[in-house]
Specification:
With 390 residues, the chain is mainly alpha-helical. The protein contains 18 helices and no strands. The protein is globular, with a radius of gyration of 21 Å.
């Protein structure tokens, strides 16, 4: 947050206070929850179990009786999460929550100061921080890794903008060893800067893959990687109630869904995103605009057609929906469009809010992916270029 000792106006101070109260209150609430009801409404215990089973030479991709779900992540993540796993449960959960909130806020701070195109005076930045947090609440509250994946995506883009290529490659690689789907962003940014990023990214992928080999015998690590690959293959053959993507729209409005047809849509849409992003590159856009276009379109594709998109994954679009609202604010019809999309993406991705509406109208579950479509329409066809000061 800005330094309050500076000579800000009364209006600036009001918005600084409001944003600070919002972020600090949420961080305090996460901390209190960790100590009062540890393990409640959070996936944190699953991460701990994965690291603990790694430490004790046990298979990590099997159901552990102490938690309700499987550890779905790489051996590298199991190793990197160890500093949290060895702490007392409540303390580890609290620190993980603060780490996630802090990482997201710092990435948003960098985005507003360095990445987002146009003019971003103090009040506008504070509005961006606040709207983004509201749009990311459910993912942060559950302890998911998605907000950190988004944070590292923003860090990578800022590094690309500043030509810090090695750090950009590191920031692109780390999320892939948590969940596989950030590889799509890595491919788009590598296509943007192939000479600078391609070999660095490949090297970072090897380095991160090697981390577990420094903690266990070679054969055991290879076995764990084999188990993880087999697990990933089986994981995406199963859908559960929390999924919210284009499949959700299809199965609600035009059932039954064809798995082959849906896979074809995934591939065609991915190719379309690539072509659109490369078109933005060759339109000689300002690099800030290009990087934000890549980030936001990648996010939209992941939510609509990417693997494993659940309600809690929607926190990754919170900042881009907030950006859309603020970018379109001077234009009434455009503002109504983006505010409606932001509202749906912020609130109807929370199960406690969506569920009562879904009981009355099952098509309610399509609102979140339809709001992503609305965001894409704004991004591609409605958005107006920001006016820079002369």
């Amino acid at each position: 947050m800005p330094d309050l000792s500076q000579n800000y106006s009364a209006a600036d101070r009001k918005w600084i206070t409001a944003a600070a109260v919002l972020w600090i209150s949420f961080a305090v609430a996460l901390t209190v929850k960790a100590f009062v009801v540890p393990g409640s409404h959070t996936v944190y215990p699953i991460f701990v179990v994965g690291s603990e089973r790694w430490i004790h030479d046990l298979p990590i991709h099997v159901q552990d009786p102490s938690v309700s779900d499987l550890f779905r992540y790489t051996p590298t993540f199991a190793v990197l999460f160890t500093p949290f796993a060895v702490l007392p449960p409540a303390l580890g959960q609290a620190l993980w929550g603060l780490f996630s909130v802090g990482g997201l806020f710092f990435s948003l701070y960098l985005a507003a100061r360095k990445l987002l195109p146009g003019e971003w005076p103090l009040q506008r930045r504070l509005h961006f921080y606040s709207l983004s947090l509201v749009g990311s609440l459910s993912g942060l509250w559950s302890g998911q890794t998605n907000s950190l994946i988004l944070a590292f995506a923003i860090f990578a883009s800022v590094c690309v903008l500043e030509k810090r290529w090695t750090l950009a490659a590191v920031c692109l690689t780390l999320p892939i060893y948590v969940k596989l789907w950030p590889v799509a962003l890595a491919m788009l940014l590598i296509a943007h800067r192939p000479k600078e990023l391609a070999w660095r990214f490949a090297l970072c992928m090897l380095v991160f893959a090697a981390i577990p080999f420094f903690t266990k015998p070679y054969g055991e690590v290879v076995l764990r990687y084999q188990e993880w690959i087999e697990f990933q293959h089986g994981l995406h053959q199963v859908r559960w109630g929390g999924y919210r993507d284009f499949w959700t729209i299809w199965e609600t409005l035009w059932p039954p869904v064809s798995s082959v047809g849906y896979m074809a849509l995934q591939l065609i849409s991915a190719f379309g995103v690539f072509l659109w992003c490369m078109r933005q590159k060759f339109r000689a856009l300002d690099e800030k605009e290009l990087l934000v276009a890549i980030l936001s379109m990648w996010t939209a594709w992941q939510l609509l057609f990417g693997p494993g998109t659940e309600q809690l994954t929607y926190c990754i679009i919170g900042p881009w929906a907030a950006w859309a609202v603020l970018q379109s604010w001077p234009h009434k019809l455009e503002r109504i469009w983006t505010v409606a999309a932001w509202g749906v993406l912020s609130f109807f991705t929370c199960g406690e809010i969506e569920r009562p509406f879904d009981l009355l109208m099952p098509a309610t579950k399509t609102l979140a992916p339809l709001a992503v479509f609305a965001f894409v329409v704004w991004l591609v066809a409605i958005r107006r270029a920001p006016k820079e000061k002369a």
